Amino acid sequence: MGIILWIVFGALVGWIASMLMGTDDNQGMILNVVVGIIGAFLGGWLMSFIGKTGITGFNLYSFLVALVGAIVLIFVVKLFR
């Protein structure tokens, strides 16, 4: 995916994950993008760790993988706060 699609994908995933985890009021647009992109890498790594494919493009499966990664990232950050 190109850089623009990574930013859009990251913003969407980060926003949904922050709403699900109750941190939407604390995060701005930039942090949502960062959480979404890091969550996509984390979700892809977790899926490859259990033998599945990671992010494959701009599709529903990749969205769910990135969403799981973003939720795990927010959960870990909340543990240390």
Fold topology:
Blueprint: H1 3-21, H2 29-49, H3 60-80
Helix pairs in contact: 1-2, 1-3, 2-3
Descriptive overview:
With 81 residues, the protein is mainly alpha-helical. The chain has one domain (3-80). Helix content is 75%, strand content 0%. It is built from 3 helices and no strands. It has helices spanning 3-21, 29-49, 60-80. The longest helix is centred in the middle third of the chain and has 21 residues, at 29-49. It is globular, with a radius of gyration of 12 Å.
Rg estimate, integer Å: 12 Å
Helix content: over 70%
Question: What average pLDDT do the residues reach?
Answer: 86
Helical element count?
3
What spatial form do the alpha-carbon principal axes imply? globular
- Beta-strand portion reads under 5%
Low-confidence stretches: none
How many E strands? 0
Q: How far apart, in Å, are the first and last alpha carbons?
A: 33 Å
Number of domains: 1
Question: How would you classify the helix and strand content by structural class?
Answer: mainly alpha
Sketch the topology as an H/E string, one letter per element: HHH
Largest sheet: none
